[in-house]
Amino acid sequence: MLQTQINQHVEALIFSSIQSISVQEIILALNAVFDEEIVENQVFESIDYLQEKFSAEDSAIGLVDLNNGYQFLTKKQYHETVNQLQLHRSKKKLSQAAMETLAIIAYRQPITKLEIEQIRGVNSDYSVQRLLEKELISIDGKAETPGRPILYSTSSLFMDYFGLNNLTQLPQLKDIAKEENTVGENAE
């Protein structure tokens, strides 16, 4: 098979994927369709070609490496325009409670619902359920504590949605804490 054909099929796979798609997933899909075996180097060659193709000034989208995979996203200079569309279409926004719950899960995962509720100080059943429905969190097994409560962690969709490759890219709490929220005098 010609590399040009592989490029086109890789582009189609990345374009049609809702989430970032890994090189291994691309290889599996291509090998299921074609008689000859497609190898990793051919896929990486296609990815290099596509990154160059979509890096042109006249292209509004670019190929981005996200969450150990690849995804087409709009370039930064178009984010405000796309954001306006999303604001108008956004009927399924996360509530403040859901955002708080998601932040707790992101920073303390894996975590039980009881631990979330102890941090928030209120019942979090609805927020956890909404986050599961939106696939921003997932069930990550059961804790080894009495009653074996369910453990929750962030999902791949969470990583894609917030543009993260791994959890170390989450903002550190010290970076987002405001000085006005400190207690006592600041000694220099």
UniProtKB/TrEMBL annotation:
Pfam families xrefs: SMC_ScpB
Which is a GO BP term held by this UniProt record?
chromosome separation
- Sorted UniProt keywords: Cell cycle, Cell division, Chromosome partition, Cytoplasm
Q: Which domain of life is it from?
A: Bacteria
NCBIfam families, alphabetized: SMC-Scp complex subunit ScpB (TIGR00281)
Spell out the protein name for this chain.
SMC-Scp complex subunit ScpB
Species for this entry: Pedobacter yonginense
